Amino acid sequence: MSTANEPPPAAAPQNEAAATAQVDPRLVVQQEGFKGYLHEFTRKIKGGELGSLPVVVGLVLIWIVFQSLNSNFLSAQNLSNLSIDIVATGMISVGIVFVLLLGEIDLAAGSVSGVAAAVLAVLNVNKGWNPVLAIIAAVLVGTLLGFVHGWFFAKIGVPAFVVTLAGMLAWSGLQLQILGPNGTINLDNNGLVSKLTSSYFSQVVAAYGLAILAVAGFFAVSFLGNKRRKAAGVPSRTMTDLLIRTAGLAIVALGVAYILNQYKGLPVALLIFLIVCVLTDFILRRTSYGRKVFAVGGNIEAARRAGISVPWIRISVFMISGGMAAVGGIFAASRISSASQATGQSNVLMMAIAAAVIGGTSLFGGRGSTFSALLGMLVIQSIASGMALQGVSNSIQFMVTGAVLLAAVVIDSVSRRSQKAAGRA
């Protein structure tokens, strides 16, 4: 005879299933080996934990399709140019990722990048400032504008959409005011700013050295992380698992280095972009500040009760977005050796947001990585480059990019729904 305190007959199996689902994946791999890999991969797919898999698969398919249509698509020259073309908007997208992690949006990033480019050009060309000082001033201006957005959002309570929409309009006007009646300021083709996107490390050792350094750094960080986990008595990855992951990264990194060396070598712009992605990802993944950003994006009330200063986190991410938008504007000006009314306008903002979302950052907040900007820009620029080689009009490019963006958001929504069903959201 059952009592009121006894669980129903189905409770025990349900609890057992839940406990099984919560087993650390590292422990599963340790116990089951290759079978454990398959088990964990299947669990992630069913649970909606897709990570970067959809965008990587999509990028491979895009490259296969365009290479089959035009053999020049995967040529060293085209891929090298593509790696430079992603930098300007990619920098803006890195900042957008921080805002999206809070579940918010920054509609002023494009205009901020235009203002920063205008400030840089005026100080460097018209005022004769040292280019380094002009760059620093431009980034500070972008950061200040981001602070304005964050302050109105966090302190006054104005929705981020409205604040940044107002900023988009206001800063576009400020950009025109700074540039003056001519609307365009040409930069020195041989100056530091122009060389940011026109310079290469032509020595073969540069690209290969960077690849080897990246692989060694990945192995060292993973190995030390495993060592700390073992010392703490918690599950860690096996050495075989670590070596397989390192080997996969080595194949990709050395392959990219080989392709770049077939043209002019390692582009300086690409190197800077990769460094920015690594540093910002480190901030998000390995620092208390990054964990606070994820906490606020995941659950504001829980973060507040945990003692996190929610207003400061909100203000800071908009400052980061403004600063990165300024950096993107500088690279955009460098690419065409001028700052004009078109810098940061047109579809720059939409492409930056699309890149972050396509790369895997959730529009709902709490999930994403700054490497999303890199992957998303690779997808967008690959589509643009492939269609340009085919002579397809911009109108078709926009429609295809829009379809890819919609697909990314649908995958994100379905993924979140699957995670909720699995009790992991």
From TrEMBL:
<feature type="transmembrane region" description="Helical">
    <location>
        <begin position="266"/>
        <end position="284"/>
    </location>
</feature>
<feature type="transmembrane region" description="Helical">
    <location>
        <begin position="312"/>
        <end position="334"/>
    </location>
</feature>
<feature type="transmembrane region" description="Helical">
    <location>
        <begin position="82"/>
        <end position="102"/>
    </location>
</feature>
<keyword id="KW-1133">Transmembrane helix</keyword>
<keyword id="KW-0762">Sugar transport</keyword>
<feature type="transmembrane region" description="Helical">
    <location>
        <begin position="132"/>
        <end position="153"/>
    </location>
</feature>
<feature type="transmembrane region" description="Helical">
    <location>
        <begin position="50"/>
        <end position="70"/>
    </location>
</feature>
<dbReference type="InterPro" id="IPR001851">
    <property type="entry name" value="ABC_transp_permease"/>
</dbReference>
<feature type="transmembrane region" description="Helical">
    <location>
        <begin position="200"/>
        <end position="221"/>
    </location>
</feature>
<feature type="transmembrane region" description="Helical">
    <location>
        <begin position="160"/>
        <end position="180"/>
    </location>
</feature>
<feature type="transmembrane region" description="Helical">
    <location>
        <begin position="346"/>
        <end position="364"/>
    </location>
</feature>
<protein>
    <recommendedName>
        <fullName>Xylose transport system permease protein XylH</fullName>
    </recommendedName>
</protein>
<keyword id="KW-1003">Cell membrane</keyword>
<feature type="transmembrane region" description="Helical">
    <location>
        <begin position="395"/>
        <end position="414"/>
    </location>
</feature>
<keyword id="KW-0812">Transmembrane</keyword>
<feature type="region of interest" description="Disordered">
    <location>
        <begin position="1"/>
        <end position="21"/>
    </location>
</feature>
<feature type="transmembrane region" description="Helical">
    <location>
        <begin position="371"/>
        <end position="389"/>
    </location>
</feature>
<comment type="function">
    <text>Part of the binding-protein-dependent transport system for D-xylose. Probably responsible for the translocation of the substrate across the membrane.</text>
</comment>
<dbReference type="Pfam" id="PF02653">
    <property type="entry name" value="BPD_transp_2"/>
</dbReference>
<feature type="transmembrane region" description="Helical">
    <location>
        <begin position="242"/>
        <end position="260"/>
    </location>
</feature>
<keyword id="KW-0813">Transport</keyword>
<feature type="transmembrane region" description="Helical">
    <location>
        <begin position="107"/>
        <end position="126"/>
    </location>
</feature>
<feature type="compositionally biased region" description="Pro residues">
    <location>
        <begin position="1"/>
        <end position="11"/>
    </location>
</feature>
<keyword id="KW-0997">Cell inner membrane</keyword>
<feature type="compositionally biased region" description="Low complexity">
    <location>
        <begin position="12"/>
        <end position="21"/>
    </location>
</feature>
<keyword id="KW-0472">Membrane</keyword>
